[in-house]
Structures are given as C-alpha cells and as structure tokens.
Amino acid sequence: MTQRTAREVHLTARPEGPVTDALFAVVEVPVPEPAPGQVLVRNTLMSVAAVMRTLMDESSVVPIPPFALGEPLNGPAVGEVVAAPGGEVAVGDLVQHRLGWREYALVDAAAVQRIDPAVLPDPAAHLSQGPTAWMGVVRGAEVRPGDTVFITGAAGGVGSLAGQIARQQGAARVIGSTGSQAKADCLVDNLGYDAVVIRGAGPIEEQLRRLAPDGVDAVFDNVGGEQLRAAFAVANRGARIAVVGALAAQMGGHGTAPLEIDTFSLLGRGITLRGAALHDHLDLIPEWNARFGEGLRDGTFTFPHTRLHGIEQAPAALRGLTEGRHMGAVIVEL
Questions:
Q1: Which residue in 5, 169, 185, 322 is deepest, having the highest Cβ count within 10 Å?
Q2: Residue 273: count of CB within 10 angstroms of its CB
Q3: In sequence order, what DSSP letters do the residues of 67-113 get, joined into one string?
Q4: Whether 193 contacts 148, CB under 8 Å
C-alpha cells in the first residue's frame, strides 16, 4: 500500500555564491494519484551532478530549464512503479526518469524508461555519467591506439570513467587533472591514469608539459579555463579536443565560460576543437550500457561513486560535489 505523504526537496532561494543548506527545504507533501497515461514511481536512487548548480540560477546557457523557486528540483532517478492505471507500464517495473529530488514521482508513462535488471549488476550504475564519458572519448576526442590523452576534471563522475574508457580504447598514456593529491593517487592507483596534474600545485601548462613531453593527441575537457588553455598549448598537430563540460564556470556560478584561443595556431596545427554534448549522441547509450555491464561483471570497469542515504542528504550531496569533496558519481539512496 502506498503511503499518504512523502518528502521532496524544494529550492527556496537563488544562490549568490557557494551552495548552502539554506537554499533548500525538505517538504512533506501528499503522494499524488496517477491518472491514465501517468505512473507513480517510488524513487529508490537519484543522482547529483554539477549541472544542477547551474540550473539553480535564474537563467542558464544549458538547454535545460532552470529550477523553479518553491518547487522540487529534478534530475535522473531510478525507482519502482507502484501505480500505473493506464497499463502502459507494469506495477513492479524498475524504471529510470528525470524527476529525482522526491521520494515519489508522478511521471508521464511515455517519459519513463524501463530498466532491464540483467543489463547492469547495480541499479545505481544506470545513474552513472558513463554515457557522457563514452561519447566524449569515442566521438568527441576520437581517442585512438597509441594516443596521449589529457582528461580534465578526472575525479568526477565523468572523468573517473573517461580515463578507464580511454585506456580500453588503446591510449598509450592517460593524464588527468584534479584538485588534490589524494584524488590524484586514486586516479593512478585504481582508475587507469598514468599521471595527474593537480590544480593549485603550479601552472597547469607547466605541469602538463612535464607529464606529456611529447604533447597530447586527444583532449577530453570537462573544466575549461586555464586547463583547456593548457591543453590547447600542449596539443600536437592533428590533435582532437572535445569540450564536454565547463566545471570552472559551473562551480563558480558563472553563466558563461569565455576562453581566448589563437586561431592561427589552431589552423597551423590542424587541431579539431568541438563541443560534444550527450543529447546529440543518445544512440550511444544502449551500446554503453552493454559494455559497462559486461565490464562491471568481468572487472574491466569499476564504477567510482559516493553514496549518501536519505533524501534529507540530497542538499549536502550537491554542496559536497561543488566543494570537490566527492570522488566519482554522487548518488543518493532514498
């Protein structure tokens, strides 16, 4: 029997600086009743991502509507269907949708995606940012055997998988960037990286030149700013640079991420610079899930993630993410 009330997290104010708990409220609301064409999902897992900080602002350059004040936030979630009056989805089905930040979600039946429990061994893995990592490595940076690859933001939900993927694509050397020595050690010891540039340990370009004396052939950029500028400076002739994220702007609460690039150098070295967004490559998701599931079972992939428990921990999860305190994806178990 479905309970009568449930909790959800509302945005109460726009941030004017760092994310704080005062921007959120955990609210108890009636559990909604689904109409034909809708399903009621009891959410069991939700993910927290850097883009959510951007969506807290009143306007955003990303192609997603910003969060509304006084309303629940949203984002990827996995849960069990507990009511489905139209019959489009069966009660008991495990589904994925985009109405996280609440314990029960009322979702249009057409907007949920059934999950085959046999594909991935852990339902939380459906909330990984692996599709973005796969897209960025395979189609964005076009990583090839023998490449030296530079991946910025390597310890996050995307980068922690991108390094593993680049290695499996045949990269000869994989270099990452992160914000602490502890994270750098984890990347090298566990996640397929050969070396790591550490933010704050000296100029990024100098560190990168030292770690990649022969230059870099492929760049998977999650960050922008100084790190993208350094990658461009060290890029070899014919290098492929994929801009997959803009963490420098997102974490700082900036709406844009300008960067000055020498176009003569771009032309002279024949460098490819492209923005790569998952929404243009959705066809890759089933391929990724199949490879990820196989890799998790045979040990060729790991799923680095931090898991917090209880919806009341969701604001802290996002705050910790923006402060760089988590390794890998950030999942809240509801």
A1: 322
A2: 17
A3: PPBTSB--B-EEEEEEE-TTSSS-TT-EEEESB-SBSEEEEEGGG-E
A4: no
The Cα 297–Cα 293 span in angstroms is 6
Task: Say which residues have a Cβ less than 8 Å from residue 96's Cβ, sequence separation at least 6.
Answer: 76, 77, 78, 112, 113, 115, 126, 127
Single-letter residue type at 185: D
- Rounded to two decimals, what is the model's pTM? 0.92
| Residue type for position 71 | E
Q: 């604001």: which residue's tokens?
A: 315
Q: What is the pLDDT of residues 305-331, one digit of tens each?
A: 999 999 999 999 999 999 989 999 999
Q: What is the pLDDT of residues 96-121, one digit of tens each?
A: 999 999 999 999 999 999 999 999 99
End-to-end CA distance of the chain: 18
**How far is 91 from 106, CA to CA, in rounded Å?**
14
For residues 78 and 43, the answer to whether their CB atoms sit within 8 Å is yes
What pLDDT is stored for residue 96 in this prediction? Answer: 97
Contact status, residue 19 vs residue 318, Cβ threshold 8 Å: yes
Distance CA 192, CA 297 (A): 17
Q: Tell me the C-alpha to C-alpha distance, in Å, between residue 96 and each of 155, 208, 228.
A: 25, 39, 33
